[in-house]
Design goal:
Elements (H helix, E strand, L loop, with lengths): L6 E4 L11 H5 L3 E5 L8 H5 L5 E3 L15 E4 L6 H6 L5 H5 L3 E3 L2 H10 L5 H13 L7 E2 L5 H12 L4
Parallel strand pairs: 1-2, 1-6, 2-3, 3-4, 4-5
Helix pairs in contact: 6-7
Length: 162
């Protein structure tokens, strides 16, 4: 288990802009950040600066924009045979520079039963949900979901998603 219930989960959507939640986010013992986060302009004021977990898909051209972080994760199972076929554009050389944790296959295959093409965001949230047993919506910042993803997210928050 990599995650615990005391994790702020921070996406890149501009929803938190000008809400000044940076200090709240940084007060969490663990902060998971997504993809190509940056610390430019007022983003620290709005999104904080702490990053203990970095989630990245490692698609070619993507890499960390800020360090340090203690844990690096890929929410896609790119090292499995399925992942090698499904996600051929992964920069495996970049992944080798980090000790990358991948979503456990049993989590991912279970998620496929609910959503045949899960987004990276939903995979990340599901992984944290499975490790913690729940996700509290007030611990999630800067995400925007499609209607289908919002339904999955609500099920995670309610603790009813298998």
């Amino acid at each position: 288990m990599l995650f615990n219930p005391y994790t702020a989960i921070v996406g890149n959507y501009s929803f938190e802009q000008d809400r000044k939640k940076g200090m709240i986010i940084d007060s969490y013992p663990h902060v998971a950040r997504l993809q190509n986060f940056t610390y430019e302009g007022n983003r620290i004021r709005d999104y904080g600066s702490k990053a203990t977990v970095w989630f990245c898909d490692f698609f070619i051209g993507r890499g960390p924009q800020a360090e340090p972080f203690n844990i690096v994760c890929n929410a896609f199972p790119v090292s499995t045979e399925y992942g090698k076929r499904r996600y051929p554009n992964v920069d495996r050389e970049l992944m080798e520079r980090y000790d990358v944790h991948e979503i456990p296959w049993n989590y991912y295959s279970n998620l496929l039963k609910c959503e045949p093409h899960p987004s990276f965001d939903i995979c990340m949230l599901y992984w944290i949900y499975k490790d913690c047993g729940c996700i509290h919506p007030f611990d999630v910042f800067g995400f925007k979901f499609s209607h289908r993803e919002a339904t999955l997210f609500r099920a995670m928050c309610d603790g009813v998603l298998q």
